Amino acid sequence: MHKVMLYALSTCIWCRRTRQFLDSNNVVYDFVYVDKLEGQEKREVMAVVRGWNPRESFPTLIVDDTTVIVGLDEARMREVLGL
Question: CATH number of the domain at 4-78, out of 3.30.365.10, 3.60.40.10, 3.40.50.11740, 3.40.30.10?
Fold first, then answer.
């Protein structure tokens, strides 16, 4: 099983579709809606996102603390997650 973390925006259709893809493939994952955070917590999470994805775009998916997938890329998610 992979460690999967999704950084998303609650209003983003691509983020929603990424969650739907993960759910439909029974992938266990954690996620954060970055736009729902405030203050220091938001700054800290954005620093993490920026470290993986300097463009700070969403969705940003981190797999096993080694691989980043930016945007809705089902083929790449299948490859990295072994689906």
Answer: 3.40.30.10
Model pTM score: 0.93
pLDDT in tens, 36-59: 999 999 999 999 999 999 999 999
**CB proximity list for 28: less than 8 A, separation 6 or greater:** 1, 4
Beta-carbon-side half-sphere exposure of residue 40 (alpha carbons within 13 Å): 0
